[in-house]
Amino acid sequence: MLYLQKNYNLDSEKHLTSLNKEDYLPHIAFDSVIFGFNGKDLKILVLEYQNTGLFALPGGFLGRNESLEEAVANGVKQRTGINNLYLEQFHTFSNPGRANPEAMKQILEMNGMNIKAHDWLLDRFISVAYYALINFEEVDPVPDALADSIDWYSLDKLPPLMMDHRKIVQKALDTLRDNLDRKLLGMNLLPEKFTMKELQNFYEGIYGEPLKRTAFQRRMLATNTLERHEKRYDGGAHKAPYLYSFKAPLKKK
Amino acid sequence: MLYLQKNYNLDSEKHLTSLNKEDYLPHIAFDSVIFGFNGKDLKILVLEYQNTGLFALPGGFLGRNESLEEAVANGVKQRTGINNLYLEQFHTFSNPGRANPEAMKQILEMNGMNIKAHDWLLDRFISVAYYALINFEEVDPVPDALADSIDWYSLDKLPPLMMDHRKIVQKALDTLRDNLDRKLLGMNLLPEKFTMKELQNFYEGIYGEPLKRTAFQRRMLATNTLERHEKRYDGGAHKAPYLYSFKAPLKKK
Questions:
Q1: Any idea what the Cα angle at residue A251 is, between residues B213 and B133, rounded to 5°?
Q2: Which domains does chain A possess?
Q3: What are phi and psi of B125, to 5 degrees?
Q4: In what residue span(s) does the Nudix hydrolase domain sit (chains A, B) (predicted)?
Q5: By the CB < 8 Å criterion, does A101 face chain B?
Q6: A47: enclosing H helix or E strand
Q7: Among the ranges A98-107, A133-142, B122-131, B230-239, which has the highest mean pLDDT value?
Q8: Quick one: which of A71, A81, B92, B140 has the fewest CB in 10 Å?
Q9: pTM
Q10: Chain A contact present for B66, CB below 8 A
């Protein structure tokens, strides 16, 4: 949940300056759920803080003169090393009990940061949450100075996450599923032309369960967002499946 | 954007206490877009502040020990007089330029509130925005102590709204349109059984434009969320339309 540049030296003054109370609005954080999908497996990007055993979503704080969109674009890049990631806001979490000052103290201590100078980090925060969906085979995340590691974890093998981060992941997943039809076009996770089977693989990956082929095909065609092209010939022509693409611009339902 | 109980006396100490800096988290507000629809016209609920000519969405602030959901449930009830309104969060607005301290000063002055004691209200705020959709013929909104009036305004006759409230309305409208199919069931704006024509009226009201009957019917039936019942007989039996209801529970697509 901290926002720090990778190339800051841990023992330098810069390090402390970067989480200076005066530079941020109090009580407002952001977190990001970065889904990775390679056509088969769905994973999530998780940071592990230095020597704490604490796992968390990449996040940060809102600068005094920043919009959330600016804070998130810069913060996620610095925490994960991933450039040009478009993240979409999906929910703001505000349970008064979501703070975990003990864990935050531990992170500060393990990074040699003065707790008193950073006591604003122990306060209550609301968190504005964002998500993105990318192909995890195409990026190479880099942990920032506060983290030991940054890694892709399968949904069913997530480590225990700090605070309410597991709940944030679940809400992101619900949102992703709800918006799947509308979001697909922008995600660039399918080739320009794809077969119905490839599209079905994608949905099955996100839903985490097998879908019936005929019902899936009927539903997809009813959305009126697909355009049918030539068949994909691979030798055995009698079994060649049709290729589809998304109609662009994707019409709102 | 202020949060005040209707039954507070304007000149009492209670009034000031209710916007006491110590009781709220700084920099965090909420606003609500309450859509009213009677089957034909779509309107929005807007407050006018006492003697200022300033119009705004009903809103408020986040109490130190409250979740946003609690703050919104209580705040909207107090500002509009409407009970048991379920509001759904849709976006958090954070442009650093969205504050309007001059307008806020004017509201404080016109309500006899000490500006210095309430200077935290002149700071920058992010606003977590919520929306609801109700039948405006079934509720009777009551302005709170800070407002001259609270009224339903048609979308094309909205008065100029404070700060970025017009942008918040537009985003709420976009969200409502995007979510219409999924939200319909819970909104109680249609009778339990309705004709395809009644359903079409509803969509046309929200989209603000006429839709083609045959295409509309085909699209609705393809969603697989409607159950067909007997015809509605009204004498001229040969023209009697079928009645439909929503399948419950509404399956996620």
A1: 70
A2: 13-179 (3.90.79.10), 190-246 (1.10.10.10)
A3: -125, 140
A4: 25-175
A5: no
A6: strand A42-49
A7: B122-131
A8: B140
A9: 0.81
A10: yes
